[in-house]
Amino acid sequence: MSADGLPTDGLPTDDVAAARAHRAFTDRFGADPEGVWAAPGRVNVIGEHTDYNDGYVLPVALPHTTRAAVGRRTDGQIALASLQGDGAVVELGIDELAPGRPHGWAGYPAGVIEGLRERLAGGVSVLVDTDVPVGAGLSSSAALTCSVALALRDLVAPELTRIDLVELARRSENHFVGAPTGILDQSASLLCTTGHALFLDTRERRTEQVPLDLAAAGLELLVVDTGTSHTHADGGYGDRRRECEQAAARLGVPALRDVTDVAGLPVLDDDVLLRRARHIVTENARVLQVVAILRGATDPRAIGPVLTEGHVSLRDDFQISTVELDACVDAAVGAGAHGARMVGGGFGGSAVVLVDRDRAGLVADAVRERFAREGYAAPRTFDVLPSAGARRIP
Ligand code: GLA
Question: How many whole angstroms separate alpha carbon 283 and alpha carbon 294?
Fold first, then answer.
């Protein structure tokens, strides 16, 4: 059931999505692609901004994916097309690729291609198609880079592991596009599996598939896209990252991951750095707490209050929430959700709500009514169950 907006029930099957991308590639480039690959967006259950602090994260993959139809060329050119754009094909020589060139959406796949350029001397054509909401804090950029990374791995670099692809996709965002992200989104897109949350230790790169059978428990995740802007290349995200690094340096540790007790934080005499560090220390503890609850096979409803605590910490200590996200969390919990929090980089985007399936419509209505009363634009809502990671389709 989707309350409105993005119908998850209406998402294409892999077969349908693959056929559509294949056809569009053939129309655009006059040849068949060598295959079609899909990679999902993600919603993070808990563990926000911990990834670039060497900490823990616990995302699930969305059912929404980006598909990449890919075929190698022989003329040394890169050609990139999107079914969501204005239809224009971005074309340039593989030797012309450089950070910022091409820019815009094409920079994401171009950065991945650049990372494997010595294997792609003849060039490559890519056509992408997506259901992942763009700019909603649901990792549309990772879905894009990871679909292309998996395609190129299968075509020209079979020795690369999925962990290697996480790095390839992250480097594309960090060094080519210029967005200083961690590895949460790329790991989620490449490593998540159906019916599980991915517990990732970003320092050790250790992963565990934690069962999260929400359907069996009569639960779902309701995603609320506030429609408010969100982009990583902008300053706020980078500022937080620098503040965390400064806090770690002043505390004399390699990363905030190394602090496990908030009792040690008051030596930071700067209120801003103290707040940033407190969020990271308590957020890492919340990830471990949620994982322990889920591993214990207790009712997953028990994680709800921990999610809401995470929101309060992002709002008050990390200071990256917005009035819309706060209103969403407040209205959802007030209407009987088990827990709710903003997700992703912050400063807009989406919130995730843990809710009984049979109450999801009511909760979505409560959020919509609250937004209308406050004069905010109507949010889009859709429901999510933990879905599959990146794959070749069909
Ligand atoms: C964005 C980044 C991730 C992560 C989250 C916050 O999604 O791309 O690396 O830092 O924000 O948890």
Answer: 17
Residue 310 · residue 46 · CB < 8 Å: yes
Ligand 1 proximity of 184 Cβ (cutoff 6 Å): yes
**Residue 274 tokens, joined:** 């103290």
- Residue 358 falls in the annotated catalytic set: no
Q: List Cβ neighbours of 56 (8 Å cut-off, separation of 6 or more).
A: 47, 50, 199, 200, 201, 202, 284, 287, 288, 291
DSSP state string for 289-351:
HHHHHHHTT--GGGGHHHHHHHHHHHHHTS----HHHHHHHHHHHHTT-SEEEE-TT-SSSEE
Per-residue CA distances from 43 to 86, 158, 182 (Å): 28, 29, 15
| CB of 196 shorter than 6 A to ligand 1 | no
What is the per-residue pLDDT across 44-89, written as a single tens digit (0 to 9) for each?
A: 999 999 999 999 999 999 999 999 999 999 999 999 999 998 889 9
User: How much distance in Å is there from the Cα of 276 to the middle of ligand 1?
Assistant: 15
Tokens of 233: 């290349």
What's the pTM? 0.95
CB of 308 closer than 6 angstroms to any ligand 1 atom: no
